[in-house]
Amino acid sequence: MNMAHDWEKLSQLVGDQAFVVERVRIVDTGIVVEGQFELPATARLAADDQVFLAAFVRAHGNIKRMEEWFGVSYPTIKNRLNRLAAQLEFVETHTTAQPETLERLAAGEVTVDEATRALAARRR
Fold this sequence. Notes:
By secondary structure, the protein is mainly alpha-helical.
């Protein structure tokens, strides 16, 4: 299974249209969660912007290397980074779902909404 290729095909199919993921399966655990999930901001970027962002990370933020790879000038790289930054929101990542929360979801002991509320309460 080539997930990168699948993601590219999905991006082409959807284009600029908004869409929602309604089912998530965690491969190694077999846990399935159903609901409506908004994609993270990076996944909502156009495919070429995702490639650009991945290249920037691989270049460790080295704009000189980005200039070489993409064959464009420093201002072009900076302008594109500024445009991408404007599309991305800051996401707080210090709190994540604990494994026991996922297990309780899988067992049907809590709903996605309940787990989300509990996580939000921990952040406060």
